[in-house]
Write a structure and sequence with these properties.
The protein has 171 residues and is of the alpha+beta class. 28% of the residues lie in helices and 33% in strands. The strands form 2 sheets. Strands 7-6-5-4-8 form a 5-stranded antiparallel sheet. A hairpin with a 2-residue loop joins strand 5 and strand 6. The longest helix has 25 residues. It starts with 6 loop residues before the first helix and ends in an 11-residue tail after the last strand. 19% of the residues are buried.
């Protein structure tokens, strides 16, 4: 499948996200927050989303997002990582939190998750089931009475899943 902006364009935004994540992680840590992920959501219109959570695991408030936006926005612009005409959106991960680090797969063991991975058939995407954890590179998921093992490097998207939240409940 051809990327809409070309593969180099997409790679440059993936690289930008990684650079931003590396650059802001220690600043967020000193403010009492942990980075979940940085995502370029609208490359054409210039929108960068920073998703964070409190290190204490307490619920994020709007004041937390404003504080992070003010502190991190200045740093990103000063370092030239965020063009001045781009918008910065700071948010909490929400109830359908993305799982992005290997440690997330242990932290959320026992929760329902939705996973998309390379090698799964089209009719089985996304796969939904109970997260059993991670062992080495294998993420274990219980679904339809069986344990499914997915190599973490094949996972393209994973998040917590809440039945009925988006109108399609799992029975």
């Amino acid at each position: 499948m051809r990327e809409p902006f070309g593969s180099n364009f997409v790679k440059s935004f993936i690289e930008l996200e990684k650079n931003i994540e590396t650059f802001i992680s220690s600043s967020l840590d000193s403010l009492g927050y942990e980075l979940v992920q940085a995502k370029v959501l609208d490359p054409g219109g210039g929108l960068l989303q920073i998703m964070c959570e409190r290190k204490s695991r307490e619920i994020m408030a709007i004041e937390d997002c404003v504080k992070i936006n003010n502190e991190i926005g200045v740093l990103l612009i000063g370092e030239g990582l965020l063009p001045k005409d781009w918008r910065l959106e700071v948010s909490s991960p929400g109830v359908e939190r993305p799982l992005v680090k290997p440690s997330d797969y242990d932290r959320f063991k026992g929760h329902k998750i939705s996973v998309e991975a390379i090698g799964l058939s089209k009719k089985k995407r996304p796969v939904k089931g109970e997260l059993l954890g991670i062992s080495g590179n294998l993420v274990k998921l219980f679904m339809d009475g069986e344990t499914l093992e997915l190599d973490i490097t094949a996972i393209t998207k994973a998040n917590l899943y809440v039945d009925g939240l988006t109108g399609d409940s799992e029975k």
